[in-house]
Amino acid sequence: xxxxxxxxxxxxxxxxxxxxxxxxxxxxxxxxxxxxxxxxxxxxxxxxxxxxxxxxxxxxxxxxxxxxxxxxxxxxxxxxxxxxxxxxxxxxxxxxxxxxxxxxxxxxxxxxxxxxxxxxxxxxxxxxxxxxxxxxxxxxxxxxxxxxxxxxxxxxxxxxxxxxxxxxxxxxxxxxxxxxxxxxxxxxxxxxxxxxxxxxxxxxxxxxxxxxxxxxxxxxxxxxxxxxxxxxxxxxxxxxxxxxxxxxxxxxxxxxxxxxxxxxxxxxxxxxxxxxxxxxxxxxxxxxxxxxxxxxxxxxxxxxxxxxxxxxxxxxxxxxxxxxxxxxxxxxxxxxxxxxxxxxxxxxxxxxxxxxxxxxxxxxxxxxxxxxxxxxxxxxxxxxxxxxxxxxxxxxxxxxxxxxxxxxxxxxxxxxxxxxxxxxxxx
Length: 427
Prior knowledge:
It is a single chain. By secondary structure, the chain is an alpha/beta fold. Helices cover 30% and strands 23% of the residues. The chain has 14 helices and 19 strands. The chain has helices at 74-83, 102-115, 138-144, 159-171, 183-186, 195-200, 208-224, 236-247, 258-262, 284-295, 311-314, 331-335, 337-340, 346-360, and strands spanning 3-12, 17-26, 29-34, 43-46, 51-54, 56-61, 86-91, 119-122, 149-150, 176-178, 191-192, 204-205, 228-230, 252-256, 301-302, 376-386, 405-415, 418-422, 425-426. Strands 1, 2, 3, 4, 5, 16, 17, 18 and 19 form a nine-stranded mixed β-sheet that branches. It has a five-stranded parallel β-sheet with strand order 9-10-13-14-15. α2 packs parallel to α3 (138-144), α4 crosses α7 (208-224) and α7 (208-224) packs parallel to α8 (236-247). It starts with a strand and ends with a strand. The mean pLDDT is 97.
């Protein structure tokens, strides 16, 4: 079926496009972008008063399959992604068993194609079975479709091993996504170390647990000319290190998540484990530093770090509950707060949630040009909505934003030329 998106404000930063215009889609690709397109046989999507952007891309999610489909599956994760306005997501390797082989890459792509709602891009483990004893076969993983390597959740603490991993990955043009955590410093910690942890009587995780490994990985990237991408940046110390490394020409990019620029450790006063994440929510001065880093492009992209858990797990005592929160369905709405606060323009937000992720990871996405595959997100900025657990498509209801009123919500999602969400309902 041909589709005609009518009357939207089309924002595509990579194409220097920001105007009210129509988009005609035929046979899965954008056939024409112009004003006043007439296509009598096409299905009309009335987007007057809305914004159409290149399909959103989330490069850091945990979809739990294989092994913990009780928490999330590729199917339910795909539903959540579409509901959040995404047309592509990358899934982390720390499944059970980990994604560390060609067969695992093929499994993810095959299942994603069967589901047919979003592109699911596998991130492979750096080491076999994530045991950090033997490197995975980067060449074969790259050929099988791995978009990056990462031991997310399991920092590589042996510096010599990390150096060899960077050298090997660099031979095949693969980025290593770095989970920066000094386990000796963070051991037993459950929240940010500071005034609030002392007040609440909870063991803290100091910012240095993150920053020390960020510094180490920067030095190793400099030595090896390898490419590193710093995951879920949470503190001002890391921001300063990344900013300086970029000035020096180190091959480094970085991401943060909506909860790190919208929530502080003060939220933990009620001991609600839905606010328990790793790295932890930091202090207000860290939030200010993260926002500044987004504005000056020290931090390149925004990701959700979508981490669904069972309700029974999050209801445990705070010390025993697992780290992580769901994020796919709230990422856009929370991130739009940056536009309302004038930290970013709308175009800059689209850049960080679509264009730049595609550029960093070498994806043929993030633009709206004639001839492009039609991955498009249509967003309503005019009405507010309340986050409700019962409306989540994800199996995980562990969100810190339940009950919050947000603006900006995807109403239509077009994936590979097919309408997969209409009027806010996944088809």
